[in-house]
Amino acid sequence: MAAAHAETQHHTTTGIDNRKLLMWIFLASECLFFGSLISTYLIFRGDSIVGPLPADLLDIPLTSTSTFVLLMSSLTMVLAVFGAQHNRLGLMKGMLLATIVLGLVFLGFQVYEFRHFAHLGLNLGTNQFGASFYLLTGIHGTHVGVGVLYLASLLVASARRNGLGKEAALHVDIAGLYWHFVDIVWIVIFTLIYLIP
Amino acid sequence: MATAVGTVGHTHEESTVWKWLTTVDHKKIGVLYLVTGFAFFLIGGIEAVLIRTQLAVPNGTVLDAGLYNQLFTMHALTMIFLAIMPMGAAFFNYFIPLHIGARDVAFPRLNALSYWVLLSGGLILTSSFLFGEAPDGGWFAYAPLTDETFSPNKGLDFYTVGLVVAGLASLMSSLNFAVTIINMRAPGMTMMRLPVYMWMTFVVAFLLILSLPVITVALLQLYFDRNFGTHFFTPGTGGDPILWQHLFWVFGHPEVYVLILPSMGIVSEVLPVMSRKPLFGYTAIVMAGAAIGVLGFGVWSHHMYTTGLGTVPQYVFSASTMAIGVPTGVKVFNWLGTMYGGNIRMTTATYYSIGFIALFTIGGISGVMHASPPVDGQHQDSYFIVAHIHYVLFGGAIMGIFSGLFYWFPKMTGRLLDETWGKIGFWFLFVGMNLTFFPMHFLGLAGMPRRIYTYDADLGWDTWNFVATIGVYILVVGILLFMLNVFMTLRKPATAGDDPWGGATLEWATSSPPPEHNFDVVPVVRDRDPLWYNRDHNIPMPERPAHLHIHMPPPSYFPLVLGIGILLIGVGALSSLAITALGVVVAYYAVWGWALEPTE
Ligand code: HEM
Ligand SMILES: [Cu+2]
């Protein structure tokens, strides 16, 4: 008889790996998480009694650049998954590294932006814009940070002697789901906060 | 010599404790949840007894106003998040794999982690009493009462942090259960052959997965309001107290179904077996459960009629609230239809199930009454609402859990609880419950507001308040009888046998209690009531193979360590950044250990 555990790992009712299914359902939950934060932002739009207001602060060219960086990281992530699935481990590692670097650059932009806004007088307690903007983008940034740690862990693990094992493709694939999700959320945030005045 | 003996005994004892601390077996974890949930049920009960003792007579002096506020707030939080939900999760844990024919849940270590995190959340919330600073803003913590001006002590920070931590636990276990039910079913166990209990579990998992993130955001915002100077819910820079109510109830209403659906599932298992007849209208009851799940997200504003929603929203939410009564009614008829014409065995489990139907129906009817905004204008914030919530929560959720306890106790321990004492206990609970809560309908209609710590003598409320308090003491006797029953039964030999009730579902096809791997041979399912089908078609139980080569996941201490890390992060959020940082380090270490630990 086959080992029960191996059975549970590889043979599932739907054929989808348990861990991948877990990530999909978790992301459904995350949709409502960000949905609530974004709703809060929209509800308070225009409700700030004192400045600085979004129009005084938001620097669209700057944030477009960081958005572009994050978008590119999705591309490198796709390539990392491709590498993992086709057993091209060099490509996988390189692209994981690239994704991590792009994620860090995005975070760098965000740190700069936060410091700049604070310098111009926008703090958490300044007005409704400050509160809802910092909470929403801050939590998104935290998600990017967690993603960077996640990918870095995979990269470190793949450098070990026995690598990620035969499940490398699966691990990278699941991490990719997370990464793309966080990326898509940013597109929504960028559109709603920066592009639609 | 004496020391040596002592040492041996000591080591032995420690190893049992260690086993429980590191277990990843869903059955052991289920027992942990059950014991924890019951302990919190007792704590919540003591709080309730204090509240009722204070209200027994006009101008009571047992409690002062401040303590009273803490007690009613903690009573609700404890009962909802730390008693009913964990006891529900206990049965989920124990019976999901057994019902679907699996060896364990999809993620055994995550399952253990969920328990430790839940316990952490419970400890954080309850420890607030030690500082004399328990939350006191009601379980729904309406703004602006929760603002620092009105709640200057740490009470509401215990509330936000405790609930976020407990919510994290529920989220993890719900994800785990959803994946398990989708992906770990035995051959032949299609979705439409799942026991109704599994369907209700499945709906509950999704309700939690989709509603917990909303309350988490609200709690974060409240935490920021209180600690970092934002004004999400207070007027300061233009915040909105009503926003809190929306976020809270978008979670809060699905949450009440999280509390009731497990018990509906239990009743749907108990009644067919005790009536010796398949469930009447399986598809209808499953669809009704799913419909309740979906509609449950569209009725939250019925808690907010009196905030001035406007006419159209009031119509819409009134209509959707009344609509949700329909699938609920469908279920009641299904249970009645199941019993109708059946050869009913009147066991204690049957008593509790029938009690559930009767009492829950009363609560459902008062619910539909305040689905109407003008009527609700009279009921809101009066004892009528308190009557409603206790008919659905005690009469519904708790009665269902007791039915499950009597039904499954033999499976979990190999021993049948005493039926005579069980029935006597039932009558104490049933009579006590009605004596306590039915008069609250009258009190509410006579204008008694909820959440007042005392009242004057000439308001016409004395009699029924006194009756209600007598009811609580009868309830206490009922609970004590149940505990006595459990202790006495556990001292007797395990003679219940594998299948004392002639059950239909797979858990009765294995030993009592089941072995760690649940089934020697993974069963094949041919029907909705697999064991009855096999019995009627003379299909013998599969033979036990001479050699079992079943590898179960080994115990692990990383869930416990990660749980401690999360506890530290929570404690840090209430005290100092240094503790949070320590928690993050511990958690990060645990995650790495977890990832690298061999699971074969
Ligand atoms: C037929 C189904 C039901 C309907 C139509 C219904 C309707 C309502 C309405 C309109 C309210 C708001 C009353 C107010 O505050 O003015 C309410 C409150 C409440 N209901 Fe129900 N309900 C139903 C079933 C349930 C169930 C199954 C549960 C829980 C197991 C439940 C638990 C509660 C609780 C806890 C509250 C009070 C919350 C609070 O204010 O503290 N209800 N219900
Ligand atoms: Cu509701």
How would you characterize this protein structure?
The complex is a heterodimer of chains A (197) and B (600). By secondary structure, chain A is mostly helical. Chain A has one domain: Cytochrome c oxidase, subunit III, four-helix bundle (Four Helix Bundle (Hemerythrin (Met), subunit A), Up-down Bundle), CATH 1.20.120. Chain A is built from 7 helices and no strands. The longest helix of chain A has 32 residues, at 128-159. Chain A is elongated and about 60 Å long. The termini of chain A are far apart. In chain A, 37% of the residues are buried. Mean pLDDT of chain A is 89; it is low at 1-9. Chain B is globular. Chain B has 17 helices and no strands. Chain B has helices at 2-22, 26-55, 65-100, 108-127, 155-183, 196-227, 241-275, 282-295, 311-339, 348-369, 373-379, 383-413, 419-445, 462-491, 530-536, 558-574, 577-596. Chain B folds into 2 domains: 15-540 and 550-556, Cytochrome c oxidase-like, subunit I domain (Cytochrome C Oxidase, Chain A, Up-down Bundle); 557-600. At the A-B interface, α1, α2 and α6 of A face α5, α6, α7 and α17 of B. The structure holds protoporphyrin IX containing FE (HEM) and copper (II) ion. Protoporphyrin IX containing FE binds next to α7, α9, α10, α11 and α12 of chain B.
